[in-house]
Amino acid sequence: MDYNNSDQKSKREFQLLANVFRNDPNGIHQGIFVVTPSGRWLTTANTGWPDPDPVAALERMKQALAKYKAMPKSERLLSQPLTDADRITWEEDKFFKPERTLDLRVVKRGYAYPGMETFDERHPKFFGIDRLWFKPSEFRAYVPRELKVGNSIKVSGPAMERYILMSHMMKAQGAWDVSHIKTGDMTSRITRIEGSQVHLEIRAHYIAKANTQWNKASYEGDLLGRAVYDSAIDSMTNFDAVMLGTHDVGVLVSNLHKGDRVQRVASSFSLNPLTDADDRMLPQQWYWGYGLRWCRTP
Amino acid sequence: MLSLLLNFATIGQASPTEAQLIKNVAPKELSWETFETVKKHASLTTDDLRFQSLDWKTTVFEGLKYGQELDKPVILWLYFGDPRGAC
């Protein structure tokens, strides 16, 4: 837990959380808990593994709610409400989305494969969600220099690589490096121009292979999509793409995988509607994949 | 780290689309003819979105503060890494 590594343990946010776990020999640890705003533990609500037991979880939550209602106000609430001064600051607070960044919602889901079990998050019942960002200096790679119907451009750099580097083409996450992209053949072609709206068709074929201590996986697949670039405002105003490919984990890891090494995976990329909490979270790889320098140099 | 005010409305629902998702077979190749089929498989289902219909706060701090304001217990979901992917 990041909390355990925080150097701001004197802040009330940390102290409240430490209080929740004061009787737990593991200290602050992962799980699903019901607590009071004053920092008192009411119950642990994660039940069932690998398949959660929602009936048991609901029962525990009901009991926690009853316990809460029976507590005097002085126990369930803080006498002095939290203020911003009590908040722990995190490195990610410094990370932000540059102006006019193409903000995509990524959804990915694997197809059925031999021997699959819900222990393994590659199971088709599970989806993956993330954000994919391209700042203006990156998404311009999709736009041919001369805006004329039929013109095309070979796309290179982050606009081509990031789909692989951020593991958007596979379930779960892998440690990918640019050198692992053996083929990244991406082309963007102008199909139509209406005023300042430049319609693009984007196609790519990827072959990736890693052979490191952390990643022995491989991938082969394609990307196909449509996008609209508005030359008057230098922005991408539409984007709709999918990837379809074959992911091989390379080595089955006992605490991650069940069944075959190989799976077909579908991914979709569309303008982020920013409708819920997932949509508003930073890209998962904001630190290692993007970095603070990235957002400071649009 | 997500937190949520205790709410029972949507807990315990089975996913009616799970069987269909397991039956889906990947097209042999990606083309404009197969685009929508692939996209549909990689889209959020009604059940996927039900989880997000709850008023999740993305930090423990926000959740505790909100719970204090409303005088309600808080669900804390603490994890290593990110809730949207592997640890």
Account of the protein in words:
The complex is a heterodimer of chains A (298) and B (87). Chain A has 298 residues and is α+β, with helices and mostly antiparallel strands. Chain A has 9 helices and 10 strands. In chain A, strand 8 (218-230) and strand 9 (235-248) form a beta hairpin. The two termini of chain A are 31 Å apart. The mean pLDDT of chain A is 96. Chain B is α+β, with helices and mostly antiparallel strands and 87 residues long. Chain B is 36% helix and 10% strand. Chain B is built from 4 helices and 2 strands, in the order E-H-H-H-H-E. Chain B is elongated. The two termini of chain B are 13 Å apart. At the A-B interface, helix 2, strand 1, helix 3, strand 3 and strand 4 of A face helix 1, helix 2, helix 3, helix 4 and strand 2 of B.
Walk me through the topology.
The complex is a heterodimer of chains A (298) and B (87).
Chain A: H1 2-5, H2 12-20, E1 31-35, E2 41-44, H3 54-70, H4 73-76, E3 102-110, E4 128-134, H5 136-139, E5 152-155, H6 158-165, E6 181-194, E7 197-209, E8 218-230, E9 235-248, E10 262-271, H7 277-280, H8 286-290, H9 292-296
Antiparallel strand pairs in A: 1-2, 3-4, 3-10, 5-6, 6-7, 7-8, 8-9, 9-10
Chain B: E1 2-5, H1 18-23, H2 35-41, H3 46-52, H4 60-70, E2 74-78
Antiparallel strand pairs in B: 1-2
